[in-house]
Give the backbone structure.
Amino acid sequence: MAAITTTPAPRPVTAALPLPLPALHSTVLGWYEAHARELPWRTPEASPWAVMVSEFMLQQTPVKRVLPVWTAWLERWPTPAALAAEAPGEAVRMWGRLGYPRRALRLHGAAVAITEEHGGDVPDDHATLLSLPGVGEYTAAAVASFAFAQRHVVLDTNVRRVFARAVTGVEYPAQATTAAERRTATALLPEDRETAATWAVAVMELGALVCTARGPECGGCPLFTACAWQRAGCPPYEGPARRGQTYEGTDRQVRGKLLAVLRAEHGTVEQARLDAVWPDDVQRARALDGLVADGLVEPAGPGLYRLPQ
């Protein structure tokens, strides 16, 4: 009689950790309480709208660049309705040099939807947040967690890197979020909703301040002795080449220069002024066409351009 074989059940995520979950949670949360940065969108007074604005701005942008723009934005538009009442071009103008300015249009679109469909209040339901223009899985989970103290998996680059090293034992996570990463993050999430919300931001802060992409300060990490990557001898990354982001000479740089001219004017701008910002005619035309296609710039007549009205 042939032997019956069975596929072993996958090991639970917690089996990879030398700390039980309660100890893991208390260790990271204790570190966060002692070392967290004082940021205005984390204060009890911060409105859900203030939290949402911060999450849009912080995507791919360092905190030090976001702080002054976030402050000016909330002074001008303290509510979604205040932003929705203005032209989308004003959001692009106010966005300044944060980069990836389509985020400004998406935030304006979200403000319009919140004003018209939700009585001007940022919805506290995760599914409803996901239905807003420009709000993806990460932003919906972050706003639900940080503004409403709900229990959701919040996976940004910093969180993914902490879990890759501490749990999986590799230096960097995959380039795109995997189902395995989501299972890990879900398994590690505290059951209590308020604790889970604090855990989400605590792990994020750990990745931003200590478990950084380059030059991690492992000696100051609260998970130093528990980290799977440390216990494996810090093996170097062996995945696909990680491409650094370039800017000089790219279409992104040209788009930024074109937008800078348009942001400085509250009316129309002549083609000749835009032509002066970049010597390569083909690249400049391609960048301008891209801005128009993205809705960041609109033609206002023959040879005239402006921010969207």
Observations:
- Residues 193-209 form the longest helix (17 residues).
- The chain has 15 helices and three strands.
- The CA atoms of residues 106 and 134 lie 5 Å apart.
